[in-house]
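Report of the visiting student (M.T.), summer placement. My assignment was to run the structure pipeline on a short list of targets and document each run. The first record concerns Protein LOW PSII ACCUMULATION 1, chloroplastic.
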Amino acid sequence: MASLALNQQQLLCFSSSRSRAKTRPWLPHKVTLLNSRKKVHIFQVSCSSSTSQSPDANTQTAESCVNLGLSLFSKGRVKDALVQFETALSLDPSPTEAQAALYNKACCHAYRGEGKKAADCLRTALGEYNLKFSTILNDPDLASFRALAEFKELQEEARLGGEDIGYGFRRDLKLISEVQAPFRGVRRFFYVAFCAAAGISTFFTIPRLLSAIKGGDDAPDLWETAGNAAINIGGIIVLVALFFWDNKKEEEQIAQISRDETLSRLPLRLSTNRVVELVQLRDTIRPVILAGSKETVSLAMQKAERFRTELLRRGVLLVPVIWGEGKETQVEKKGFGVSPKAATALPSIGEDFEKRAQSIIAKSKLKAEIRFRAEVVSPAEWERWIRDQQKSEGVTPGEDVYIILRLDGRVRRSGKGMPDWQQIVKELPPMEAFLSKLER
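After the run finished, the structure tokens were exported:
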């Protein structure tokens, strides 16, 4: 069955898939246990039936069809696997079986480059069968799907928390937002508490004000009562305004976290022709994204060569993005729209992928592959992310810009035009410096 791994400790994390076919990329998961590890909570759908023999028509169950589909997919028979997953969905499956069938069906469509069909399957699994969006984000088998526009649409729906695909992703984003702004909840509590107190005071002040207006021997002082009412009403207005302002800031922060997550999944090709997602380079390099016309970006790259040694000491990796290149690139069925030869250089899956992400030795090998400059894969998705970032910063989409990322993958700063490399050398600390350790 499908391996639906969710790292509860951190949304932006590496995949924790357990067991998959190792001879082909983008294969669905196969697991038979419910595991839990220290610091990593893993939810997995299990089917225990054997797939060594094809089930007879009279003994077909949703479980056996899913297992048979996985077996066929591991042998490269994607079309036959799709038939089995569709059959499983027609056999009155349990919620767990339906989730597994839909998820693995989406993996098949992703393998075939059918983004819309993959998105439809995942949308149904999210909305009706409690699939966690983090699974889609962290699964290497869906990396090709994450490079498509359909994934961006699905992610935006999830960020807004629509009923159609559930609230799980938005809840995770809100948790990260609360970590980054830990006193927002406290502020809201005081806004509500003081607003309630001012409302109660106003409730008792209004009758006194009316009595003061009418006058009489026992009437309270008009100006004093009016002043108290004005203070209470003014306080309510200010507190309500602050409450809505804080909500707006939270929405902006959630949108930025979502953009950071999208950025972390964008693919790069290193000098060794290996394709990785940006998240795999976290803690290893500081990407500097140069977006603009071919002439502008080429000139900036030439100027960077003069400071190559110092920039490498600071972990800088240049990522050039040429406006308009994304319109010419067609995403192929395998990998990220690269040639079959390049697709074989994609990150391995299953336990090998997880070990590479966590092993110190493997990280050293990955670091050795980085050569000052990387090539973007799926440039249309890079352009879309940069334009979204420009809108959030109030910059006209399509202008020449540069974006410097931190070691932890978040945006450090950005600016119009191309960067001043001498200033960047002064600004960024060397990789071995204490300040660099704080960025990780």
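Residues 36-139+147-160 form a domain with the Serine Threonine Protein Phosphatase 5, Tetratricopeptide repeat fold (CATH 1.25.40.10). The chain has 18 helices and nine strands. I thank the supervising group for their guidance throughout the placement.
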